[in-house]
Amino acid sequence: MRFQIVMADVYTNPEKHVVLHNNVKLPVLGLGTSHNGGYSHEAVVYALKNCGYRHIDTAKRYGCETYIAQAIKASGVPREEIFLATKCWPADYGAATTREAFNGSCQRLGTDYLDMYLLHWPDVPSGVKDKKKLLQDTWRTLEVLLDEERARVIGVSNFLEHHLETIMDECSVVPQVNQCEFHPYNNPKKLRAYCAERNIQFEGYSPLAKGLALKNTTVKSIAEDCGKTTSQILIRWNLDKKIPAIPKSTRVERVLENSQGYCPLGNGQILNEPQIQEIADVHNKSPAQVLIRWNLQRRVVCIPKSTKEHRVKENAEVFNFVLTDENMARLDNMAQNLTIMDPSSIQAKIDNPLPDGYKLNIINVPAEP
């Protein structure tokens, strides 16, 4: 069986993976590739080749699946060592169309199977009369793909409790992962508890709040205490919360740093928070590392993103320090129910005919031979 293989160390180190309820090992630190900030071929190659990343998170909507296939090939890392995840856009929901979308993603990614396939949003096109039935029919298609071993893990993204209930009312397989925005400004404790009670792994994107958390004084202080960057602290917070982390960076240095700490970052402001900086200074880490570490120590799979190689490196360097209980509490107390993504804007994007990747800025992608 192609799934019964010996994985890279990122899978076997107890701290670097979580075991899902179907016994698949999910690396707790991943590399995000969303269109925000652009897509960097060199950063993805560097992350795989030099920083030990083995979890790549993308989506059809981002418009970079083809480029990721090129990067994987250029890295020289065997496909079977990479946990490759992508998402189905709501415009493709439906029994037949979801399978078509899955096959299209596989073709663009240069693979015949996916390690994880997620429903991108709980929203559906406005013209749909029975939205509940569409979601349930779509989920059944994912269950079939799982049964066919085309997908190793199936899950959802941006689902709240009532959305999950819609799926679980009729499902045979409970979603194995729920990927949502997660950082100190947005810490949905009730949703995380709900998922934990049902053995649904919580995964966090935008761990750095696109930079918002990295400047927080608490995170900076913890990073200083641990001798880490704030990014590593945030990633580590995710990991210690047992939440897989998916930081993103297009810089080699950040990819490496993130591999040593884990944490989604934000929009920039959070990185200036005095509390985050104080923690970062104590640990001799960056605010981003503090945020990633916070994710990890909260057992949240973390997928930070960056197009800067030095940031990609930094975001990976979050496994060699530990946030104290006091550090964790300070970061936990920063919750403001503040999100980077506005869920109310998604419906218009689903109904809009703009092509996938319409706003993607491509950085240093080589021409096809």
TrEMBL record:
- Top-level taxonomic group: Eukaryota
Recorded source organism is: Homarus americanus (American lobster)
List the Gene Ontology MF annotations in alphabetical order.
Answer: oxidoreductase activity, acting on the CH-OH group of donors, NAD or NADP as acceptor
Oxidoreductase as a keyword? yes
The chain positions of domain NADP-dependent oxidoreductase read 29-259, 275-334
Q: Which UniProt keywords apply?
A: Oxidoreductase
Residues spanning the membrane = none
Protein name from the UniProt record: Aldo/keto reductase family-like protein
Read off the SUPFAM superfamilies from this record.
NAD(P)-linked oxidoreductase
Its lineage reads: Eukaryota, Metazoa, Ecdysozoa, Arthropoda, Crustacea
Pfam families in the record: Aldo_ket_red
Region forming the signal peptide: none
